[in-house]
Amino acid sequence: MFKPHTAAVLRDVVFPLLCFSDEDAERWEDDPIDYVRSTLETEEDYGSPLMFAKNLIQALLKDRGSYALPLMLQFARDVLMQYVAWL
Question: So where are the chain's domains?
C-alpha cells in the first residue's frame, strides 16, 4: 500500500535527495568540471540514495503515471511558488 504515502515520500525523501545541497555548492566552487563529471557518471552512483530517488521517480511515472505525474507536477508547482513568494 504505497499509494497513500506517495506524496509524503516524494516530498520528504525524494525531493531533498535531488536538491542542490551546501556540499554540492562547495564541490562546484572547488572544481566545477569534476562536479559535473561526478553527477553524470552513473556507475559510481549504483546503490546511492540519489540513484534510488531517480529510479523511484522513473518507476512511478512508468507504472503509475496517471496517479504520480499530477502529484509530482503539483509538488513542483508548490516549490516554485514558495520560491517566487520568497523573492
Answer: 3-86
